[in-house]
Specification:
This protein is mainly alpha-helical. It has nine helices and two strands; from the N terminus they run αβααβαααααα. The longest helix has 15 residues, at about 70-85. GO terms for molecular function: electron transfer activity; heme binding; metal ion binding; tubulin binding.
Length: about 180
């Protein structure tokens, strides 16, 4: 079940450019290599840990480089394969590792999910607000903006609770 290297290379490129606007997809940095190993379940927490991945990454990259090429990436995978699939032949282990990677891309769709917990719903339900907070929202639960937050003074000249506001002219004109 030899996998095509093209599929593995496509995944390599997708992970290589992940989160890096300047990346060309020809080289992968350590952070993305670790992310790829996590997303493709190469890191299983038992045989292969993030530390193992970091060590292998440092081992295969060029001395002063901070990235690895696809060739070095393959070296790294060969090394990780024997760790991840203990007791398998080197070729078999590498093939299985490629199987985990082929066709994969960075799992970042829906990383931040909107928390809709019952507690949050209760806290954001404006119908349950009391006191001065109640004044900040209309009946539909929509905020009134500044009018709901600040005491805007009534500059009409009438006392706050006066009901006959605006009737002065009529009283003067027709007594």
């Amino acid at each position: 079940m030899a996998l095509s290297m093209a599929e593995v290379e496509t995944s390599f490129q997708k992970f290589a450019v992940h989160g890096d606007t300047k990346a060309t997809g020809k080289e992968m940095n350590g952070k993305n290599f670790v992310k790829m190993c996590k997303d493709c379940h190469i890191i299983d927490g038992k045989n292969v840990t993030t530390t193992d991945v970091d060590i292998v990454f440092s081992k295969v990259k060029a001395k002063s480089a901070r990235v690895i090429t696809f060739e070095q990436f393959n070296e790294a995978l060969t090394e990780l394969a024997s760790k991840r699939f203990k007791g398998k032949s080197k070729e078999e282990a590498v093939q299985q590792l490629y199987g985990l990677i082929a066709g994969k891309e960075p799992a970042n769709a829906g990383v931040t999910k909107v928390a809709k917990a019952a507690a949050v719903d209760r806290l954001t339900d404006t119908t349950k607000y009391t006191g001065s907070h109640k004044e900040r929202f209309d009946d539909s639960g929509k905020g009134k903006g500044k009018a709901g937050r600040e005491n805007i003074p009534d500059t009409s000249g009438y006392v706050g609770a006066y009901k006959g506001s605006g009737t002065y002219d009529e009283k003067v004109k027709n007594p």
